[in-house]
Here is the input.
Amino acid sequence: MTEKKIVLAPLLPAQRPQFIKDLQEAFSLELKKNFKITEPFPPKEEVEAVICNSENDVYHILSNGQKIGGAVVKYIAPPKQGFLELFFILPKEHGKGLGRQAWQAIEAHYPQAKTWELVTPYFEKRNIHFYVNKCGFHIVEFVNKYHSSSNPHYHLSEGENPLGRNEFFRFKKVVKR
Here is the structure.
């Protein structure tokens, strides 16, 4: 598979509405397929809160100049820790190896990051496969009604998940350079 030129392009305010729609389309795939949930997910207000947070960097992911996805990253200088807040590849671009290349571009953009963390819902098998088998993350925690996250960055209130339960895996990657 030929590597494509992947670039992170900062999101402009006028691009926010389409970014949100694209993210919701990508995030809703498994919910529609497996749970017959048709409303957009995550809710627009939640996405806006994340992308408008001044601590976060928001990017379109471009491949050879064409938009293929997006990412929201929080980087905390000391202790050199990155958080992948949101990450998506447009559904029409799935299965082309672009997600892995996009992740590599994010790591390259933050070369000082020593660790990365993210969460994904328990039912997102594609995501779990991607992060563990393609990107080198490790599952470090399963958050559910019996176990709250040990990382305060990931405290969710009941009802944020459209299935009515907050069950997700927390992933961590220690960068080896």
